[in-house]
Amino acid sequence: MAAGSRVTETAPGQLRASGKLLRCDSEFVGVHVGENGRHLVAIRPIPRGTRVFTLVGREHPAPTRYSVQVGPELHLDQDCARDEFELVRKYFWRYLDHHCEPTVFIRDREVIATRDILEGEGVTFDYNTTEYDMASPFDCECGSERCVGTVRGARHLSAEQRARVEHLLADYLLGQVQR
Ligand SMILES: [Zn+2]
């Protein structure tokens, strides 16, 4: 995961015109390289409910700067690759930005569209729905009315914030965060 929150919202059809697009091992997403860094974007329209891709990587017992939590004490990070191109192609999920009203959610390592996603739109998820306590908290700038401000993991959500994302919370977090 990129520890940032700026979402790339490129107009449909404008992907290649507005910056470099790195190909990934996915028919749905690519990594857009723009002035604000690298962000995962849709390279074609993605209907709501689509399984966009599956998270793969090396398992760790503790969170790292870019890991995604996938179990009670289980975190995925990128694994080794021959070069930077292969690293991006295989572990493109690292460029999933956080958003407080995200376009995808994660369930059992499957990344699923929460709504219809346009070509060029940012592919984002709510870090607070997978992470219990993040290694690298940051201030969100998503601009959503529901923005939580500082993103630190589900452990730090207020009861009200938690209620809003309850339907997207990972199973292993349900018993851990306060009701
Ligand atoms: Zn936000």
Compact summary:
GO terms for molecular function: transferase activity. The protein is of the alpha+beta class. Helices cover 12% and strands 26% of the residues.
Explain what you see:
Strands 1-2-3 form a three-stranded antiparallel sheet. Strands 4-10-9 form a three-stranded antiparallel sheet, with no helix packed on it. Strand 1 (20-23) and strand 2 form a beta hairpin. It has 179 residues and is an alpha+beta fold. It contains four helices and 13 strands. The chain has a single domain, classed as SET domain (Beta-clip-like, Beta Complex). The structure holds zinc ion (ZN). The site of zinc ion has 6 residues, from loops.
Topology:
Blueprint: H1 15-18, E1 20-23, E2 29-34, E3 37-42, E4 51-54, E5 58-60, E6 68-71, E7 74-77, H2 84-90, E8 97-98, E9 104-107, E10 110-113, E11 124-125, E12 138-139, E13 150-151, H3 159-165, H4 171-174
Parallel strand pairs: 8-11
Antiparallel strand pairs: 1-2, 2-3, 4-10, 5-7, 6-7, 9-10, 12-13
Bound molecules: zinc ion.
Zinc ion is lined by residues 100, 140, 142, 144, 147-148.
Low-confidence stretches: none
**Helical/strand content category:** alpha+beta
How much is the radius of gyration in Å? 15 Å
CATH superfamily: SET domain
Profile the largest sheet: 3 strands, antiparallel
Distance between the termini: 27 Å
Domain module tally = 1
User: Portion of residues in helices?
Assistant: 10-25%
| Overall pLDDT score | 89
Order of helices and strands: HEEEEEEEHEEEEEEHH
Strand order of the largest sheet: 1-2-3
In total, the number of strands is 13
What is the CATH topology classification name?
Answer: Beta-clip-like
Beta-strand content = 25-35%
CATH architecture grouping: Beta Complex
CATH domain class name: Mainly Beta
Small molecules in complex:
zinc ion
Q: What is the overall shape?
A: globular
Number of helical segments with 4 or more residues: 4
